Amino acid sequence: MSSVILIGSPNSGKSLLFNRLTGLSQKVANFPGITVDVGTGPLQALPDKTLIDFPGTYSLQAISAEEEVAVERFEQSLDDPDVERVLCIIDATRLEKSLLFTLQVIRDCERRGKEVFVLANMIDVLDSHGLELDVAGLSAALHTPVMPISARSGKGVDEVVAALSRAVAPGARREHLMHTPDEILRGEAHSLARRYGPQGDILVREQNRLDSFFLHSLTGGVSFFVIMYLLFQSIFTWSAPAMDAVEMSLGWMADAIVPNIGNPLLADFTADALFGGIGAFLVFVPQIFVLTFVIGLLEDSGYMARAALICHKPLRLFGLTGKSFIPLLSGTACAIPAIYAARAIDSPRKRLLTYMAIPLMPCSARLPVYTLLIAAFIPSSTALGGLLGWQGLAMFGIYFFGMLCGLLVTAFVSRTSDDHYNDLPFVLELPPYRLPGLVPIVRNAWNRSKHFVTKAGKIIFTLALVIWVLGYFPNYGADLSESWLGQIGQVVEPIFQPMGLDWRYGVAIFASFAAREVFVGTLGTIFGIEGADENMVPLVDHIQGSGLPLGSGLALLVFFAISLQCISTLAILAKESASRSLTLKMFFGYFVLAYVAAVAVFQVTSLVTS
């Protein structure tokens, strides 16, 4: 099977074109640092050809760790005899920025005898503004086919597929280009852009007008906090109908299925472990979808890079850079891709500090725990016509708390450790503002939610089975405190008593060190065994009826905000940082910090409310 390489600079629409050509749901984001691994997939129209998508890079002279991945893999692939062509995608609206990289790619492909097609993307943007790209002139100057396309609308994509279906045409090798240094190519790129690129500054003036608002010292900061607040408020308001629908469906299924199971043991397992444990977790999946969807809107619109620029100055106070904002916010969805995204940070020291902050970001695995506790202790009332909700405000607060803890940790480390690295200057491209493509964003949010369920579901099912067996025997659920689980709970209970928690919550916390979201499933199983004659799904009602004090609820929120309870994150951290010692120090350090902070919150709250 022959292969085709797809390569280009960040924000050129490369990943969107990859999705369109292969039908795969690779994430599309409008800032550098999100595509950090090589993606592959067969072309839909040409199944005998494999398309290889490399991380976006500005130059074949790598600076960041992400660019090193792209350049190294690209150079290796050019020596692969199965690779027959290279598709180099450029941004037609920013021609000079793309042409230097394009000339470097053409030069390296000439050295290996690989055919290159240059794809001038975003031609639809030029058309909508009455601007033109001299495709024929640019193609003649490059001695390489140039094809105008729109990865968003699909314009010109069929022509690309048709060109790929034809046999590779041997061309005359250009010896002068094969030995041209980058300094000469830079001047040639400037000359080509001036001669063949769109004439006019309409796009620049449009972007500057929006930037004058979103990057203004006053309106930019206000809009940033408003957008971030609406992001977390939407987690409750937008997902509430779907959560209610899931809860009602699970309740209906439990009422329909459990009474018809003849075997009492199997019936109890289905009710307690499946509907009580896994069902309690599934209720919160719509919030993960909403969170991923809203972040996708911000990414695809071009605002995320502006947010990184706004955050650069304050982040410097904590030893970080504006480029750290992108991995940190990505960490609110999942820490693992956030750690990968940190490769785009040029400075090794700031990259290391960003690694330390990412596990404290409130990831989607914490979201079911936060939602459960907030729903149990915070009233659902709203103000200002529903714009301001107390639960949404609490969610914003706990998210802000986690982020603040991460920043404080990096500030402490950056001021107390020796600086072994020379920092690089902060340089960030501001992509043009665009209307988000809803279809790929919805698809990505759906895939992220599905992946979360399948990944966490295996762990939750396994632990729910173990918890149910331990809690059900030897007395068949007659008295949970006398079960094997109850006996184990009595051992761990003294550890969590300073937080006002009994053995049930202690067991759930210990189980959650496999994955944070397991806390919800474990509690659901435990309360399902205790309340076998009640509705198995609404776990919030069980917690409210268990007599858990407000101080303990707040202590749990603080504990989960700080502790590092994800085996997968630890593994990726050790791999990316190349330091097992750092990973172990973070794991134990964050646990001790979480425990001390949670105990302090419980004690203070108890004094205030007594």
Description of the structure:
- With 610 residues, the protein is of the alpha/beta class.
- 61% of the residues lie in helices and 6% in strands.
- Strands 2-3-1-4-5-6 form a six-stranded mixed beta sheet, with helices on both faces.
- A hairpin with a 4-residue loop joins strand 7 and strand 8.
- Helix 12 packs antiparallel against helix 23, helix 18 crosses helix 24 and helix 26 packs across helix 27.
- About 2% of the residues have low confidence.
Draw up the topology in text.
Layout: E1 2-8, H1 14-22, E2 39-42, E3 49-53, H2 65-78, E4 83-91, H3 95-112, E5 115-121, H4 123-128, H5 135-142, E6 146-148, H6 157-165, H7 175-178, H8 182-196, H9 202-214, H10 219-237, H11 240-257, H12 264-282, H13 285-301, H14 303-316, H15 325-330, H16 335-341, H17 348-357, H18 367-377, E7 382-383, E8 388-389, H19 390-416, H20 438-472, H21 484-496, H22 503-511, H23 518-530, H24 539-545, H25 550-562, H26 567-577, H27 580-609
Helix pairs in contact: 3-8, 10-13, 10-19, 11-12, 12-20, 12-23, 13-20, 16-26, 17-19, 18-19, 18-24, 18-25, 19-25, 20-23, 21-22, 22-23, 25-27, 26-27
